[in-house]
């Protein structure tokens, strides 16, 4: 659990990262379990130093990443960093990628007391054997440092955006992306256009589709390894998400020595007319509050990593309440690391067994009309008993009964329940 800078679009600097750490502490996020603060693409200087090592921009990080690590560690937080195994980091200069530099870069991260590495495949093509080789090389380099650094990889590319689904990466990494990028919409229904950029072609995923894609690899879940359906988009609007990415692309062209191929792809976005840009930014509605509850519930039912992507320095009470719902987080972080499966009686009912013998149940309504959804305790795997306790994980209320539960669920909403075979008085 933690936070990643990419979706928020905040400019990375020592100041903004420390502000983010402070906000995660003051908002209750740290105490709810969010401990990693991860610097995505944009933290590094455009070129390596004279010694061949990665370095930060001295203007933005005057004291370097080691100082950020100290600031985080002093506050009970951990620091993550971003790199790429091939030609270039996503959107930056090829000379700061790590292929062939694994040993020196891993040791640099360890010297900086970094706790997490996101290693992102940044080519449009993908050969599985090559990916195994380069991802394994960095894994070995990290292990050789002697420092425990959590290792997260993204093997997906535009040519093979299902690489995270098709292959079992659990022998290489601690976590692997399973899907194409998630955008803050219910379903991405943008029509394809003639572009090599996924954001413009409409191939990014909305919430239910990303959940469905990740469900196909759920059998690979086990303690110590996580499948990653992408960072959370709670607290992000469609417009700010789009504008943030445009701003990143403009900064890339202005500040970095971009390869010709990369420059061509970036310019596809920047040559769009203002009406086209506005249409792309507003063509689909942002997630409603109820849809964000569905999103957070589904990720927790998948035992997915909970990596916030909003600007936590400035978030609404609604966003904070969703992200810090410890009843739902407990389901996500349950030590059994089980994944949700649809009920045989009703696919709208997702069932997840928990380590203490309880069962988490999500009643998900993806339709456009309200729906009455019912569940029976014995039908979701609980033993027959005279009395069950049902806790509503969003209203934080408890009821007891004989095990038959019915909820009227609004359109694009969820009722998330924890059913116990023990009768507890409310």
From TrEMBL:
Family: Belongs to the glycosyl hydrolase 27 family.
The Alpha galactosidase C-terminal domain, residue ranges: 346-419
CDD domains, per database record: GH27 (cd14792)
Enzyme Commission code: 3.2.1.22
Keyword Signal set for record: yes
InterPro entries: Aldolase_TIM (IPR013785), GH (IPR017853), Glyco_hydro_27 (IPR002241), Glyco_hydro_b (IPR013780), Melibiase_C (IPR041233)
Superkingdom of origin: Bacteria
Key words, A-Z: Disulfide bond, Glycosidase, Hydrolase, Signal
Protein name: Alpha-galactosidase
Source species taxonomy: Bacteria, Bacillati, Actinomycetota, Actinomycetes, Mycobacteriales
Example of a GO MF term: alpha-galactosidase activity
Gene3D superfamilies: Aldolase class I (3.20.20.70), Golgi alpha-mannosidase II (2.60.40.1180)
Catalytic activity: Hydrolysis of terminal, non-reducing alpha-D-galactose residues in alpha-D-galactosides, including galactose oligosaccharides, galactomannans and galactolipids
Keyword Disulfide bond: yes
Gene Ontology BP term (one): carbohydrate metabolic process
